[in-house]
Specification:
With 183 residues, the chain is of the alpha+beta class. The chain has 6 helices and 7 strands, in the order H-H-E-E-H-H-E-E-E-E-H-E-H. The protein has a 7-stranded antiparallel β-sheet.
Length: 183
C-alpha cells in the first residue's frame, strides 16, 4: 500500500472512532449517572417563579433518607432521562475560557423560572459528595464539579417535563420569605 492509502485509512478509522464515541457520549443517562451520586441520603430542591407583579417567589424542599416522600421523589428523579450534547466535551476541555452561548430567557405567564436539584451522599473520605441538576425556564443543565462548569443537558419534551416537575414540587415545598432569598 502506498503512503496516501494508509493515511486515508487511518483518517477514516479515527473519524469512525470519533463518531462512535460521540454516539456513546450522548446516550440517555439517568440522574445517578449525571450527578455521580449513587445512593443519595439528602435531596435539596429550590423552585423559583415570578409572581404577577414580576417579583421572585421561592420555595424549598429538603428531604433526608427515611423522610416521608423521599423514596417517591428519588424514584421520580431517577426516571428522568438526559442526553449530553457532544459540544460539552469541547466546553469541558476549554473550561478555562469564559462562558459563552448563554442567553436570558423570558418566563411565560404562570411558568417557573428555575428548579435546582441537589443530591448528596457521604463520600469514601467522609466528606459529602454533591450532584446538581438544574432547570432554567426550558433548558436543563448539570454541574461538572471536576471542571467547575455547568453544562447543558437535552431531554425530549424537556420544557414540559421541567415545568410540570416545578409545579408539582412547588405544591409540597416550603415558601421562603423574600428577606431569606437575598441572603
Amino acid at each position: 500500500m502506498d503512503r496516501k492509502k494508509v493515511l486515508y485509512i487511518a483518517l477514516m478509522v479515527v473519524l469512525v472512532a470519533l463518531l462512535l464515541f460521540g454516539q456513546w457520549y450522548k446516550r440517555p443517562l439517568d440522574m445517578e449517572t449525571i450527578t455521580g451520586v449513587t445512593d443519595p441520603d439528602d435531596i435539596s430542591i429550590s423552585v423559583i417563579r415570578q409572581d404577577k407583579d414580576m417579583d421572585l417567589e421561592q420555595r424549598n424542599l429538603n428531604l433526608s433518607a427515611g423522610d416521608e416522600g423521599f423514596d417517591e421523589l428519588l424514584a421520580q428523579l431517577e426516571e428522568l432521562q438526559f442526553r449530553r450534547p457532544p459540544t460539552n466535551l469541547i466546553t469541558s476541555a476549554l473550561s478555562f475560557l469564559p462562558p459563552w452561548g448563554t442567553t436570558s430567557k423570558e418566563v411565560e405567564d404562570g411558568g417557573f423560572q428555575h428548579l435546582m436539584i441537589t443530591l448528596s451522599q457521604p463520600g469514601a473520605d467522609g466528606e459529602q459528595v454533591y450532584g446538581y441538576v438544574g432547570f432554567w425556564v426550558d433548558e436543563w443543565e448539570y454541574r461538572d464539579f471536576d471542571h467547575d462548569i455547568s453544562l447543558p443537558l437535552v431531554m425530549e419534551d424537556g420544557k414540559d417535563i421541567g415545568q410540570d416537575l416545578c409545579a408539582q414540587l412547588w405544591n409540597v415545598a416550603t415558601p421562603v420569605e423574600p428577606a431569606e432569598m437575598d441572603s
